[in-house]
Design a protein that fits this description.
The chain has 204 residues and is an all-alpha fold. The chain has one domain.
């Protein structure tokens, strides 16, 4: 099968794996280097990158956000692999890809403008989480209508997205941010797994 570069599953798989590994590793490193008390129920993730609170460890979190955002580009572009040939479904997935790329840019900006910069960071963070919500909704819905994609994986994406929105309206606070970010990383992981399985079935 002659696939364009954006249809090749390896592009999505590598981008997705790098996204997870880079963010988790740099976040844990910055947490280990945080000089004071830090806990997810009391502190937002961005506090790890605040150079006033963590002059050394903060650089690790901010660099991690930039690298993770860059790694998301091949992941979202690689979702072209899951196009079906049906225009409504593919248009919905394309919209999700565009939103995903924009969210990736916003994540890079979170790393560039750390928490201690104030308004620029808040704008980048708000933009990222807003785009992330609509991205998850559109991509999960498009994949739900794809017969080749595992239905339970797509349903997870939708249910997680709705639960994240509900928690933000009810509980709020730092734990909501942690739930949203790491739940989104889990979504990236299950898409990688589904793509790897799909690639294997094509070879067999």
């Amino acid at each position: 099968m002659d696939l364009s570069i954006f249809e090749r599953p390896r592009m999505l798989i590598v981008g997705g794996l790098l996204t997870i590994v880079l963010y988790v590793c740099f976040t844990l490193t910055s947490w280990a280097l945080f000089p004071g008390a830090y806990w997810p129920t009391e502190n937002y993730l961005s506090r790890l990158g605040d150079l006033l609170y963590s002059p050394f460890g903060g650089y690790f979190y901010n660099i991690g956000c930039v690298l993770t955002g860059v790694a998301l580009f091949p992941f979202f572009l690689g979702l072209r692999y899951w196009w079906t040939g049906r225009r409504p479904v593919d248009a919905l997935l394309l919209l999700g890809q565009v939103l995903g790329v924009l969210a990736a840019i916003a994540l890079v900006m979170i790393g560039v403008y750390s928490e201690d910069t104030g308004a620029p960071h808040m704008a980048a963070s708000a933009t990222f989480f807003l785009l992330n919500f609509f991205m998850l909704a559109t991509i999960s819905l498009a994949l739900l209508f794809n017969a080749a994609f595992p239905k339970l994986f797509a349903i997870y994406g939708l249910l997680f997205d709705l639960s994240s929105f509900a928690i933000s309206l009810t509980i709020g606070g730092p734990i909501t941010e942690w739930y949203t970010v790491f739940g989104s990383l889990l979504f990236v992981g299950i898409v990688v797994i589904a793509t790897h399985r799909g690639e294997g079935s094509q070879r067999s």
